[in-house]
Amino acid sequence: MELRWSIEGEQQLSRVLLGLSAELSDLRQPFNSSAEYLKRTFSKDVFSTQGRAIGERWKRLSPATVAEKARLGYLQGPLIRTGRMQNSFASIVQSDQAVVYNTAEYAKYHQSNQARGPWLPRRAMMGLGDNQKVEIVRYFQQYIQQAIAGI
Question: Is residue 8 part of a domain?
Answer without folding.
Answer: no
